[in-house]
Amino acid sequence: MSAPVGLDGAPFQSRLAELLAARAAWVGTEPHRAADDTGGCTVLVLLRSVDLDDLVRGARCFAAGLSDGEADAWRRSWTRTRFLFGNSANLTARNPARVVAPTGSAAWLGPFPAGRLPGLSRLLKPVTGMLPALPAELDLPPVAGPASAHPGAPRELHVAVRALTLAEYLVHLHHTLAESVLRGSLRADEPLRLIHRTDLDARLVHTEPGYARVHHARDDSPALRLFTWLSPEPGR
User: What's the CA gap between 146 and 150, in Å, rounded?
Assistant: First the structure.
């Protein structure tokens, strides 16, 4: 894809504001710039290591496996998620994982009421550090079933990575995957192509996405940034 164009222009910012407002309408509350830990519910993700294949598959599987009530509560909490360094093999029967990645590199727990997080959330270290080198593109085949069940090219998920920490990258990617599944715009088992770019081309927003994650570029700036863009479902 060519270099980004018009990233700071008024028309582009206006379009990003529309996309953010659409997400807020789906959530059911006004946009916010920081998570409110005093209410709602929270999902915990334990990471032993960063395996993109496991992370993408596990996030979709977790979201798809929630009950209607759980999904609704998590949606209204802006799919709040905390990432912690930890090993799912060390979890006890008191705090079982809902989903464990195939290689054990990640595990999903919750959703928990925000005031009743398990003790491990205080004992384990939050994910920190620099974003490691990422592949420019990564193809993730169907999770199960014959390829004929998913004809055509895989959906594309573009992620802007400029100046992101590891935790920030995980937040943007996980919100996109989880909310796309909850909205019904991405199936848990369909093939996906993960595409990393420094910034996303402004021309992407001229088409209606399957999902687009828009957030403030920086905490001290009103400017918005397009962090992820999921290609629309075939035929839309």
Answer: 8
| Residue 1: inside a domain | no
The answer to the question of residue 235 being in a domain is no
At 151, the pLDDT band (50, 70, 90 cuts) reads low
Number of domains in the chain: 1
Q: Are 60 and 230 in contact (CB under 8 A)?
A: no
Query: SS3 helix, strand, coil % of the chain, rounded to 5?
Result: 30, 25, 45
- Over range 52-77, report the average pLDDT: 96
Predicted confidence band of residue 122 (pLDDT cuts 50, 70, 90): confident
The Cα–Cα gap between 46 and 89 comes to 10
Q: How far apart are the first and last CA of the chain?
A: 22
Any idea which of 106-110, 191-195, 203-207 has the lowest mean pLDDT? 203-207
Host domain of residue 112: 10-230
The angle formed by the CA atoms of residues 219, 225 and 229, to the nearest 5 degrees, is: 135
d(CA 192, CA 187): 10
What tokens appear for 32 in the block?
A: 């916010």
Question: Quick check: is 4 in a domain?
Answer: no
Task: Evaluate whether 113 touches 41 at the Cβ level (below 8 Å).
Answer: yes
Q: What are phi and psi of 198, to 5 degrees?
A: -60, -50
Nearest to 172 by CA among 124, 223, 224, 212: 212
